[in-house]
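ping. complex inputs:
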Amino acid sequence: MSTDALFHLNITNAAYIVAAILFIVGLKQLGSPATARNGNRMSALAMLAAIVATIVGNDIASWEFILGGAIVGSAIGAFSARKVAMTSMPQLVAIFNGFGGAASAVIAAAELIRLIDNEADIAQDVSITIMASVIVGGVTLTGSFIAFGKLQGIVPTRPILLPIRNVINVALLIGMIASTVWLVIDPSMTAFMIAGAIALALGILVVIPIGGADMPVVIALLNSYSGIAGAATGFVLGNTVLIIAGSLVGASGLILTRIMTKAMNRSLANVMLGGFGVEDGAASAGGEDERPVTSIQPEDAAMMLAYAQSVIFVPGYGLAVAQAQHQVRELADLLKEKGISVRYAIHPVAGRMPGHMNVLLAEANVPYDELKDLDEINGEFQRTDVAVVIGANDVTNPSARTDKSSPIYGMPILNVDAAQSVIMMKRGMSSGFAGVQNELFFLDKTQMLFGDAKDSVEKITAEVKDL
Amino acid sequence: MFDAEALIIALTVFVLAIFIGYEVITKVPPTLHTPLMSGSNAISGIVIVGALLVAGQADGIAGQILGAIAVGLAMINVVGGFMVTDRMLKMFRRSGQK
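pong. complex structure:
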């Protein structure tokens, strides 16, 4: 090795260390909304440093292809980042995950081709990591695309259960192990292609039996996979910055997966086995309740709110579907002008991915210090005059605390029933996703306000203005 | 490509990085979980480094094309991921802040 090459190598490695540090500090700054934007810029800077260092430190033979790929990729990325609606953020993250997984798989293929062309003997650990890279990458690719399809409504959101799916899955797993052993003993593109095809099929089969409402967990898990695929690629190429950055993403995805499953009162195994929500229709059809509820009109709701001292809004995905975020913020502004304390209680599963509802409310100019999570707000309900539930259901059901026979027993809920009075905005009396009747509806303190959320909030705002 | 000793070092780095990731990411508040996901997605675009390496070292046309595809896919993640995260974080403001 010439001194010149050695120098390049050292500069490159130094830049990789700097990049790794910047990634970690950047993620640390995501710990507060005040510093988060800066943190994201730091991570972007780290990426730039890693890219420049790689280009400078290595003999890049042909530029045309690389440049072409980089330009096309950047253009697609920039375009989608600018155009995507905030409600479609889960789809965007899903599809980006898929591309990340695909990149890892393609790199593994290119590296194997190079190794077969140049080396008689491929070390075992290299062939194993190549297989890990293509398998995790392949599963991430098709799994993410199916998740995207389910979120977008292209693929049916209901769980699709193949009759002999367990047999198929086991067969695929055996095939995967067999092709890995084959590649380790006798490196060939055929073994690689078989493993790749199996991984692609497995990605589809793993996600297709999972219902649309469980997609937040799936996206978080696939996010983790795309990181692990990156780390595996780092092992293939002997590159530590890949290993570090990949592990960070892998850890992040796993943590979010755990948070989501906990908030849904489910185990990861239970989500991944799929089929949840299949009997949903039957359960809710049989669950019609004859007990009386109190229903009110927007004018009454306006009175309750205008004479309250503190109000908590409890938004669910129904709010986002009705696109009523801006109307709610307007009403909140009006109440704040009257000196009423206004806060928002956000359950982890309020949106379609972790933290989704917070982004939707931030887009409607709701300040982040008014957005409270489960632990922060639950003690506050008893000191609150009116809790307004908009398009949320299961996450407010007190049975989760008290009724051991309820399917949602043990699920962490917002203690809306502790508020002095509750306004429940809903289209009708239907039960939530879990197919369980919400006990909150039948409390004396609960007033039902039936109708479209956006429409109702607008009417309340108009009434409050006139008071 | 590793010899046995280098593999141990790589595994050590892997394990330590997971621990750091766990410590740092558990401190991210729920309100920022979506930007965290899109931002970490962008970070997983670090495979761009691998894509550049294989694309640069490829001597056959197949390797070059695969390398270019990998570069393109990784760049979608990098550029799209960081841009969309910035777009979201820009919207987060305190009360009274314009």
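Chain B has a mean pLDDT of 90.
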